[in-house]
Prior knowledge:
Residues 4-266 form the Nucleotidyl transferase domain. With 456 residues, the protein is an alpha+beta fold. Helix 3 packs across helix 6 and helix 3 runs antiparallel to helix 7. The protein starts with a strand and ends with a helix.
Amino acid sequence: MKLILLSGGSGKRLWPLSNDSRSKQFLKVLKNDEQELESMVQRVWRQLGREGLAHDSYIASGKSQIDMIQSQVGSDAPIIIEPERRDTFPAIALAATYLYSMVGVSLNEVVAVLPVDPFVEDRFFAKVKELEQVIADSGADLALMGVRPTYPSEKYGYIVPQEGQDGAYAAVSHFTEKPREDKAKELIDQQALWNCGVFAFRLNYIIQLLIAQGLPIQYEEMLKQYGKLKKISFDYEVVEKAGHLVVLPYDGYWKDLGTWNTLTEEIETGIIGRGTISEDSQNTHLINELDIPVAVLGLSNIIVSTSPDGILVAEKNASPRVKDLIQAFEQRPMYEERRWGSYRVLDYKKQADGSEVLTKRIFVAAGKNLSYQIHYKRSEVWTIIAGEGEVVVNGAFLPVQAGDVLKIPNEAKHSIRAITDLEIIEVQRGSELVEEDIIRLCMSWEEICGYCAVVG
């Protein structure tokens, strides 16, 4: 059995901590068994490991999340990279062709698909493993997993089983999407289940579907045609058209932590970061990523969240509306985690002559390095403020330490490796300061040394 973990979306409902590059699943606000902060994706990857599933799991994600994933779950985690965001059907189709033509997975193999960020008990993943046997026993096109509702929620979709079935799994009658509370009560009386976005199929089912639609089944060709695939969910394109569907009930704990009000219910501490909350502020949470203290006085049922991207003060029940409220805010992400560390934007200005100036504070973890790269539209000045490292510019290596200043002109090939944890203030100046102006020549330090020995 293989697992595809879908990691997409911008998670704007958890603004300002989440942005286009740091989705909700990467926010380190939950505590692990050692009482250390971890993200949703780190928690899920740890749970998969305990159930013996991590070595058969693949993360389907966009290019913008690769560094974040590798930073949080390790560089060995298999990632299937989507060239662009095109909803869940294209993402799953791409993953299926990867398993088929690149990994060599048997067409008879069962593949389970699930979100990368469910907040669940370990036995949730034990139940996911049962989907393999359900597919074998039922002969179904798709086997879904549904959560037994604990209340008549209006936030979730429902899977309604056919009547008169009392086995381990049931045939599916129909789906109902986010009903009103009174309708949700009726559905629960009909043994309906919350749709938690987990389903399984034999790989051959999707490969044959792609063939029928005239789509490629070779991964490299699918990559080339990916931009032509229609943007549509897997539910609409496949699930609702399938001839034989069954559902496996799960009666354990499950929660979607997609909004501030649901997320804070699982955060064990009221304060993360610098700040204080008065004693008369009940059920209030403060999450502060800034270097300045924040005080909350006499406010109950409130979420206060601050980051380089912005500041949110919201009543918890109203917090899901933040996604609509911030639509007018358009800016580059001000904080990002990368495979080598992280950076925070300190200042950005557009000059009268049209040039741009961007100042970052960069952290490079000991033993890590930036890629060997080149820019054509900007120059950079690096001021080392802490730590020791090694810089290479146009093939020339030199040691650096706190207090050193390096000027990197445009079109200069350059990289830096941290011997101890490094902190750098970087000032970029150029006509256009965009990600597309980063041309990466090598990634690992070993590759860089080999490249420089030959090319310079």
